[in-house]
Design a protein that fits this description.
379 residues; 10 strands
Length: 379
Amino acid sequence: MENLLRPLIVVGGSVVLTLVIGWATDFLLRKADERHHETPLWGLLRRGRIPYMLVLFAALLRGSYDEAELLPARADGVGRTLTLVLIGSAAWLVIRIAAAIVETSYSRYASARAHRDPARVRRVRTQVTLIMRVVSAIVGVVAAATMLLTFPAFRAAGASLLASAGILGIVAGVAAQSTLSNMFAGFQIAFGDMVRIGDTVVVDGEWGTVEEITLTFLTVHTWDERRITMPVSYFTSKPFENWSRGTPQMTGIVFWHVDHSAPVEAMREKLRDILRECPAWDGRAYNLCVTDSTPSTMQVRALVTAKDADDIWTVRVAVREQMIGWLTDEHPYALPRVNTADAILPPSRNGNGHRPSQDGVPAQQRRYHGNHSSGRPER
């Protein structure tokens, strides 16, 4: 009877203690989260309750397993398994705690500077993301190395591994040259403030927003819902446009090709009225002027401003559409027109040295007679 009750007491007691301690810890964290609404730390720490309970259970069972005398022939294997579970769950718990602390610090920083300096907030967010990835990688490598050292064969091979570490490092560096360059480029991007999560960029003619930055690749979310994944080394070796660098404010340009008789002053006043009714215009500046002229049209350019790249697109579209509609309704003569004429016959001469005439009009005196709008009747 004693041989049956002892394992049940040890294993059952470990399970009960784990559940009780885990529930009590989670209860205290929940109460702390309710009392302190100014910080998300306590709520974020609750995410680590699963690895926390695994650590408790593995530690309790590992410490009391010898007393249970359960499967004595397999004692070494069971003890090593519990040790491995303890190491892995402890590493998991450390990562969750570190993530909670870092995320809390970032939340406080972002809430204090979100309105005053959004560019710096995005920069810190990028750095925090990469730092957490590095911390997770380091903790994972240390945990894996600790697990391997629990096996006697690996401890015996440690000296030879250290002796050959230099040669292996050189070989690995040559083989993983591309991966290492991307990793160093990731650190350069994070701490060099070249590009940040949330920045609006133009890469290879594609306009989008930086959605994710890792140590090896970067994801750009385009305006048409596509994701472009690129190696981070691209941003350290090739030029690209970063519309969010410094201040997000932008100036946009709208062009029209109109007839020489277009009312430029009236167009300038209409531009002002359009912008006053456009919520995306930030009110900083606007302008309209003639920038070029051709034999058939003249080019009119409007300058408008907005607080960021999204709003400048909205302003440009609204100005372009409403100005064309206004010209069509109020000043149709200002639209570009195409001059047309009858085909000119090749030069030929009759007996008296003059070119033949059509309808009694000498060919030398014929002129372009049509001034038609494209698709419009002659005016």
